[in-house]
Every structure is written in C-alpha cells, then in structure tokens.
Amino acid sequence: MKRTLVVVACLLLSACGSSTGDSGSKLKMGIAVANISLNFAHEMVEGAQSAAEHEGGVDFKAVGPPNTDGPAEQQLFTNLTQTNPDGVVLENLDPPIFTRPAAQAIDKGVPVVALDTSPSDGSKITCYVGNDNYDLGVQLATELLKRLPPSPSGSVVVGVPNPGTPVLDSRAKGIKDTLNQKAPGITVLGPFQTYSDPNQNYGAWAALVHANSSALAFLGVGDADSYDLAKIKQTEKGKYLVAGADVDAKTLQGVKDGLDFVTIDPEHFLKGYVVTALLIRSVKEKKPLPQGWLRMPGLVVDSSNIDRVIQRQTSPQAAYEFYKPEIDKILADPQSYLKPMAEAR
Amino acid sequence: MSATATPWYRHLVRDELGVVLVLVTLVVVVGLAHPDFLRAPNLLSTAQSSVYVGLMACGMVFPLAMREVDLSLGGQYALGIVVGAVLIRGGWSPWLALSAILVLATLLGCLNGVITTYLRLPSFIVTLAGAMLFRGIALALADGKQISGMPLDHPFFSVLGGELAGMPASVWVLLLATIVLTVVFTRTRFGARVRAIGSNPDAAEFSGLPIARTRIAALGLSGLMGGVAAVLGLAFFTAGDPTVGNGYELTAIAACIIGGTPLAGGRGSVPGAMIGNLILTTVAASLVFLQVPINWTTFATGAVILVAVAFDSVLRRTRGRGFLPRRRPPEETR
Between chains, do B36 and A199 touch, taking CB under 8 Å as contact? Predict the structure, then answer.
C-alpha cells in the first residue's frame, strides 16, 4: 500500500513538473525569484516567460518560495540548476547566500545570469541585468523638487520597508543625497523602517505623518509605501506630497487620482524579458553573454503616462506590446547599456 | 474585617490591569517626550493598525486556553480578503461577500479542528499546513496580483472601512468582539469547558466533557475571528492582496501571552490579548516618534517588548505586594 502511494505520488509530481509532453528537444531553462507571491517578482516571471515563449524551443520553469526566505530560495535555485541545466536566471534579495551555489552551478556548466540584484564577488556570475537603484532614488527626489517651490525649506521623510535590502537602501540613498545636494533648505529625516506588510506599513507611515505633520513630503521606496501613503493622504486630506515606487494596482490608482505625485517604475517585466532573451540567445547561438551590468532605465509614472501604464499592466501581452520598441532596441545593442559590474548599485 | 482579608488594592491588580498599566505607561512616556503622539488622529490610527491582529488574538485565546494553537490565521486572513475581492469583482454584493468570508473562515477553522481531532494530529501541524494551503489558494485565486476595482462608494467600503462616531469602524468592531468573546469565555458553558479541558485534559475526558466538539468549536471560533479581520481588512485596504497577513498568527500568540493567556492552557484573557496586541502596535508607533535609527528599530522593538512583558510579569506575580512595605504575618505579631 505504502509503495503504491509512493509510486502514485512520484507520477503526480513528474506530471506536475513537466510543462510539455515533448520537451526532449527543447532547452530546459528557468528563473528563480525571491518571493513568488510579490508583484515585482510576478512581473519579472511574466517577462521571462514571455521571452522564452517568443524565443521558442525552451521548456521554461519558474520557482520561488511563497515568502521572502533566502535559504528556501537557495534550495529551489539549486534544484532548478539540476532540473533545468541549460540556463537559469537568478533574482534574489540576499546575494551572499547565493555566492557558493551560483559558483557551483557555473562550475558544472550551467549558465547563470543575475537579475535585479547585483551578484556578490565569488559567485562567478558575469552578466547582471538590473536598475540603477540609486538613480531611481535620484529620479524620485528630482520629481519632488519639480513640484516644490524654488529654494524649498522644510523636512522630507524617507521610509524603507526592509532595511538591509541593497535595492531599497540604494534608492533611499539616492533620494537623500539628491535632496541634500540640490535643496540645502530641506532636512531629510530617516530613512525609517516602514515594513513590507501592508498593515504594518500603513501603521508606520501613519505614525510618521503624525510625528512630522509639517513635513513637505513623505517618500517611500517600496510598493506598499506608495499605496499606503496615498491612502493616508486621502484619508487625512494631507497637503503634503507623497510618492513611492512600483506599479501595484492601488499605486497606479493613487497616481491617477493625483494622490501619489509619481511612482517610480523599475520596469520588472522589461528586465525579466531582456535577461531571459539574452540568456536564451547566448545558449542557442553559443555566444558569450554580455559581460558586466546591463543598466536598465526605469520609468517615472505620472499623470502624463498613467493611462498607458494602467493599460500595460492588464496582461503580459499588453506589457510586451508596450515594451516592444525598448526590448528591440536593447537586444539589438546590449553592449551600449553595459557598465562595469563593480558600478552596480 | 479579619486580619487575613485580602487588601482592597489586591482586587484591583487583576491580570488585565498589568497590561493596562504597561500600555498607559508606554503612551504617557512617549507622549511626554513627543506630545504629538497623544493627538487623537495618531492614537486612533494606532488603534486601527492593531485591529486585524487584535481580532485574531481575541479568537486565539480559545484554542490556547485548551492547549491548542491556530497557526493558520494569517493564511485565513489572506484567503478571506482575496475571496471577498474576487466575489465583489465578480458582481456579488459586498454584504453577501462579507457573509461568504465569515462562513468560509468559520468552516476552515472547524476543518482544522476536525482534522486535529479525528486524525489525532497536533493542531500545531494541522494549522501550519492549513496556513500554507489557504495562502496558496489565495495566491492562485489572485493570480499573484492585487485584485482591485472595488465599488468604493458602496457602504461596505465607505462605512466599514471608514469612521463611525469619530472612530474607525474597525475599532468599534474590535471593541464589540472583545466584549462578546469575554462573555463567551468567562460566562458561558462553552467557555468553562474550554478552560476545564485546558486545565486538565485527562480529568475533562474522565468527567465526560465533549472534548472533540469543544476543540472544533474553539478552532472554528478562531477561524471566524480571522474572517472578521479579513472583512475589515478588505473594507479598509479596498483590494485583495494575497501577500498580506504573513506572521500575524505569531504576533497574535505573542499578544495572548502578554495579555495573560499561557501556552500551558487552562486560563486566558480576551481583553488581555486585545491590550497585549495594542502594546505591540504602540511600541512600533512610538519608535517612529522617538526617531530610532533604522538599523536599530528591530532591536528597540524587542527591547521595549521585553521590558513591558517583564514589568507585567512582576506585577502579576506580586499582585500588588511590592507596592507597599511587607507586613509581618499575624502569628509573628503576637
């Protein structure tokens, strides 16, 4: 009886694991993400899957833990390099954990490319596709200054949901440095921890708003920051400016309603698409991957383009159509986007 | 009055008074340093932030008091919010969706109890697995994204997610739930059974108490409170987000313990759990006012909670004895 159950379980698992019945001639590739539940990771996966579909001939698998759990992702990544050894895209929030597993996979001949977070030294990953997160912070601060009177004076409060996450810390530093340089009359307070859980995030921002009721603006760098700040501003009829990052549905509504003055879009679909297409082409054409950091732009979403962005978010196909000109441009000449890996931030 | 009568102040130092004192001290200390902290909007938003876990903590008192635990509450909360959002987006009246969330959450809680009872498995494992199942279903239903596009003008969102008589409606619901569950826990036969089973399961079984039925009902009640939290979360946040509620069950357990419900079972306090959670939320809000550097926030949170719990524990053990010079026993005075 027990043996029968084991056999049935194995059959079920193998049936679940195989995406097509005829995958023998296809390349077996995949992507590992930090948290399959989160919107940003979901968009990267959609971009990667679209690229695999468009490039053709790839059996593509996406893995990631349901919670942000570095060791759990590391295990999934290691499994993926064994089941889909023709190439793996690695997105994570804790690069040191992946140093040795990535190096071991590359030593075994599995091409590994990094997405969204720059790889640590020793990982042997030589191709990284990601934003200039510091610059995303600069863009957010610059947009704020455009909306403040000349020579502004007062305080601006900055929040980071998960301190210690390089991507988010870089954005906060970009905001702080820019405001300090371009607006000496502004005192930047923080960054303060604002938590990623929407309820905790709301509570943290509500307390920050009440503790700094005369502040000019409240700026977050994560997704929950954007929509929770919009909700607080609406509820409390705040006169201050609020904004954050990412393109969750509620954030886009916040921009459309004029509550968030902008949101900074790290263009996750675009990054997922580009890195996967580069990996597939490299393997298929037996050409080396671009060496270094492929710097991806990022988009300021405001009232001028909000409707197009909302339309873009309706489906992977809509996202592809939105990004197609940019995808074609980047893939036609990836070298022009390259920077030294050491400059990644 | 006899010489052995309990002093009047000892009656006042009941279980809940310890946590109340901790909370009041915390609020007063931070308020003295930063008067803005005491402004009504800040206190109300802090109270509102505590509602969701607070409701779960109130429900969690029942399984904890009978030596069980419900780790599926965060998953139930996420599933409830997503199911409600899917139904409303599909054209259901939000009030019908509310009913569906409550029924579903209660049934899932009862299912935890049925599996725990009839498969003779620890509720720890059953509800841990349940948490993953519920969160997984929520994620699949939502397709990994927020479900938006709710009819925000509907009273479900404008009233239940808004204010009633100058206070967030969700805070009223929390207060009402605390009162009702306190009565259920302390004044009903069901509550007495819960405490009796937790106090001595063997004796309860020997005396013929319906342990299985009580366990299923306790976990069902816990699930119902997760459902109420989901309804209020959906009404306030106006979108179905499958990522919400991570770790809420552990915070709820911590709140219960702070509030006087031991893991050993046999007793508990619904208002204590609610106030225990309010302490945790107030600590988080107060750190903002105290401008604790970002990399010290987690440390400071842990430190304040530890100090608060230690204070409450000392108060609970001394039950006021420490406030006055120790009197000599009557026989020594002869």
Answer: no
Q: Token digits for A337?
A: 């986007």
Share of chain A above pLDDT 90, in %: 70
pLDDT digits (tens, 9 = 90+) for A194-229: 988 888 899 999 999 999 989 999 999 988 999 999
Instruction: Considering only the beta carbons, identify the residue of B39, B144, B239 that sits closest to A37.
Output: B144
* Sites in chain B below the pLDDT cut of 50: 1-4, 8, 11-13, 323-334
**Domain boundaries in chain A?**
24-125+268-298+314-343, 133-265
A37:B139 CB<8 A: yes
Q: What is residue A110's predicted lDDT score, i.e. its pLDDT?
A: 95
> Same fold for the domain at A24-125+268-298+314-343 and the one at A133-265?
yes
**CB contact at 8 A, B256 and B160:** no
Residues from chain B that touch A164, judged by Cβ atoms under 8 A, are 295
CA B168 – CA A297 distance, rounded (Å): 42
Instruction: Give residue B321's pLDDT.
Output: 56
The Cα–Cα gap between A31 and A39 comes to 15
Q: What is the second-level CATH architecture of the domain A133-265?
A: 3-Layer(aba) Sandwich (3.40)
- For the stretch A116-132, pLDDT in tens is 999 988 899 999 999 99
> Is the CB of B45 less than 8 angstroms away from the CB of A213?
no
pLDDT of residue A121: 86
Determine if the pTM surpasses 0.90. Answer: no
A 200-229 residues with CB below 8 A of B?
200, 202-204, 206-208, 210-211, 213
Closest CA to A29 of A78, A91, A86, A77: A86
Residue B220 near residue B110 (C-beta atoms within 8 A): yes
- The CA dihedral of B9, B15, B16, B17, to the nearest 10 degrees, is 30
Q: Coil, helix or strand for B16? A: helix
**Domain at A24-125+268-298+314-343: CATH code:** 3.40.50.2300
The residue in chain B having the minimum alpha-carbon distance to the alpha carbon of residue A35 is B243
Q: Return the H-helix or E-strand segment holding A300.
A: strand A299-301
Contact A204 B294 (CB under 8 A): no
pLDDT digits (tens, 9 = 90+) for A271-325: 999 999 999 999 999 999 999 999 998 999 999 999 999 999 999 999 999 999 9
* Residue from B283, B108, B117, B258 nearest B197 by CA: B117
pLDDT for residue A24: 55
Cα separation, A70 vs B149, in Å, equals 33
| C-alpha of B186 from chain center | 17
CA pair distance A95, A214, nearest whole angstrom:
39
The Cα-based distances of B229 to A205, B22, B78, B111, B133 in angstroms read 21, 25, 10, 19, 19
Mark yes or no for CB contact A36/B243 under 8 Å.
no
Average pLDDT for A78-91: 93
Chain B hits for A193, Cβ within 8 Å = 294, 297-298
Q: In chain B, pLDDT over 90 holds for what percent of residues?
A: 59
CA distance A51 to B91: 35
Rounded Cα distance between A118 and A109, Å, is 21
Residue A262 host element (H or E): strand A260-265
